[in-house]
Amino acid sequence: MHTYTQGLITLYKKHGNKEQAEGAKAYMRNQFEYFGLKATDWRNLFKEYTTKNHPDYKDVPVIIKELWDLPERELQYAAIELLALYKKQWDKEVITLIEFIITNKSWWETVDHAASELTSPYFKLFPAEIKKITGSWNRSDNFWLQRSSIMFQKRYKKETDTELLAKYILALRHSKEFFVQKAIGWALREYSKTNHKWVIDFVKQNTLAPLSEREALKRIK
Questions:
Q1: CB 3.0-4.6 Å disulfide test: which of 32, 106, 144, 170 passes with 73?
Q2: Secondary structure (3-state) at 33
Q3: Distance (Å, rounded) from C-alpha 126 to C-alpha 175?
Q4: How high is the pLDDT of residue 172?
Q5: How crowded is residue 47: how many other Cβ atoms within 10 Å of its Cβ?
Q6: Which residue(s) pair with 72 in the sheet?
Q7: Quick one: pLDDT at residue 91?
Q8: 147, 180 in Cβ contact below 8 A?
Q9: What is the per-residue DSSP string for 94-134?
């Protein structure tokens, strides 16, 4: 095991809280183990630790796979943050690692964390890759990749490609998967902060699942 991984485990374990761990585990339907660290706590510990223990980028993929294999969920959150720290050193091939993060031990919180910290900046860096990669995600049988194809633009605001957003939503609007329906609504809700008229018109003109429509219009009075 990499020394970075070992040190982070020791640090998180030292500051963990058993009662909070049990609460977090129950909230996540007993799918994952936890040290019992609140979001602000694990983030602060991660930043402090990584400032003093900054691994070479060539070691980052190994560390991420190690963190992903471990049972405590806070370590997966740290893995996402670690990869995000090295954006300036990313090449196009890092998408393979991002896809690993999306499709392994998948649940909404890691997939959406990855959408904000990894997929969104990746496609800003490599816009020529957008249609090829997100198109394959949208057509995938993996609903977490489907969700990611819809959510990757959630921070793009005025730079949102509405034609692509509409295409991906319409391709999946009949999905019975809760997390896809929710993603459609969330993506539209986020974009409504930038262009609420477009969202209103889109919802009026297209039949969406009730959950998607409700989420889409939540911020529009």
A1: 32
A2: strand
A3: 29
A4: 98
A5: 11
A6: 33
A7: 97
A8: yes
A9: GHHHHHHHHHSS--HHHHHHHIIIIIHHHHHH-GGGHHHHH
- List the structure tokens of 211: 């959950």
Crossing angle of helices 196-205/178-192, nearest 10°? 140
Task: Indicate the length of the chain as a whole number.
Answer: 221
Q: How far is CA 48 from CA 11, 54, 61, 88, 167, in A?
A: 10, 10, 21, 20, 42
Residue of 195, 199, 204, 201 lying closest to 216 (CA atoms): 199
Q: What span, in angstroms and rounded, lies between the C-alpha atoms of 26 and 45?
A: 24
- For residue 70, the SS3 value is coil
Amino acid letter for position 167:
K
Which bin fits 105, alpha (ψ -120 to 50), beta or left (φ > 0)? Answer: left
**What pairs with residue 137 in β-bridges?**
none
Q: Which of 216, 191, 190 is nearest to 203 (CA)?
A: 216
Q: Which of 126, 115, 58 is nearest to 84 (CA)?
A: 115
Regions of the chain with pLDDT less than 70: 221
CA separation for the pair 146, 139 (Å, rounded): 7
Decide: helix, strand or coil at residue 38: coil
**Does the pTM exceed 0.70?**
yes
Q: How far apart are CA 22 and CA 24, in angstroms?
A: 5
